[in-house]
Write a structure and sequence with these properties.
alpha/beta; Ribosomal Protein S5, domain 2; globular; Rossmann fold; 28% helix; 23 strands
Amino acid sequence: MSKIKTFYQCQACGYASPKWLGKCPDCDAWNTIVEEKSFSDTYRAGHAVHALPQPQPLNAVSGGREKRMPTGIQELDRALGGGVVQGSVILVGGDPGIGKSTLLLQTASHLSERAGKVLYVSGEESPEQIKLRAERLSINSDKIILLSETNLEGIMGAAAGVSPGAVVIDSIQTLYTEELASAPGSVGQVRECAARLVSFAKRSGIALFIIGHVTKEGAIAGPRVLEHIVDTVLYFEGDRGHSFRILRTVKNRFGSTNEIGVFGMTDSGLIDIENPSELFLSEKPQDVAGSTVVACIEGTRPLLIDLQALVSPTTFGMPRRTCMGIDFNRVNLLVAVMEKISGMHLGGMDIFLNVVGGIKISEPAVDLGIIASIASSFRETPVDSRTVVFGEVGLAGEIRAVNQVDARIKEAAKIGFRRAIIPKTNADKLKNNAGFETIGVNSVDDFLEVVLI
């Protein structure tokens, strides 16, 4: 038997060092390097050597569409690109208590009707605790097999005996393998357990769902290799003060990325929100200064969002800038454009900006909405409640074109809006929309003259 090897590894990025360091030289994180042990020589000796694969030309590879299995949850299928691919590995991350276990337990219930048995492995809860959640969700199926285990070898053995159609792991940070001496949740254990589970899913053709803890910054805890080896990465977002949740796709080998699914949290579990724009605008105030409706695109779905701003004289030496759901640096850039181009004196004003509903928007098409909301609150002049705006703003005050204009306007017309203020370039190329007025603008000054009542 080989000698035990000791090394020190960063729990944030996976950097390995022969000695302990207070600061990781790779990711600059402090106090993240811990001692780990490995039996690498013995581990390699216990595994058979695989036959070398033979390379082949691209045109000799037989093509074919992957087989998808609907989960029975419409918004989850949307985020996955149409359903679960057999043998795929799906990583679900999110804040504690956001609803990850609830979502996957409901998914297991629907999949058990289509794929047969579903093995639900929990390293954090007992079967009795899972049963209580299932009763609250009105789930009672003999095809959902519960297993409370953290040992990877035991889980693999149970999966081989059950022969399930899908497996849920809750969570990857609680698992450990006996072939490594480090503690559960360490970089080595997370990497090795994830790699073994992915290999098992690919060999058996079983869909595998893995729940991953997140750090306080919102990223999946553990090494980044965990996100690289899986097929799909989903982030479950939302504010506990709101009743809806956003399931965002950041990686998908079988579909588009940046797709989202919208769910509503109720006493009986998560429900699909088929028209999220109507939900976000359900309590929008009418003819109030500082409120603007913005048409944005999340993945392939157009959304109408209420963007609100509050501008007031500062009582401190340094004005405050607070942004919720919008990039802080982007707002500061647009405020500088408004001061330089439009002559608004915002240097002595506190500016608070909020995306109603808790959703996060990152695309540049919301620039016009930010400017309209700030200018409306600053001048105490409301924006027409039946008007929607979108467009990107440059540093010279010009308004640049955006994509998917037809989808944005179609969504606005469906909700009941009758006018849109958009970039001039988009307005010139826009097809005729009967009964819907579109106004094209070239600059920030032209936009402010049109948008404010």
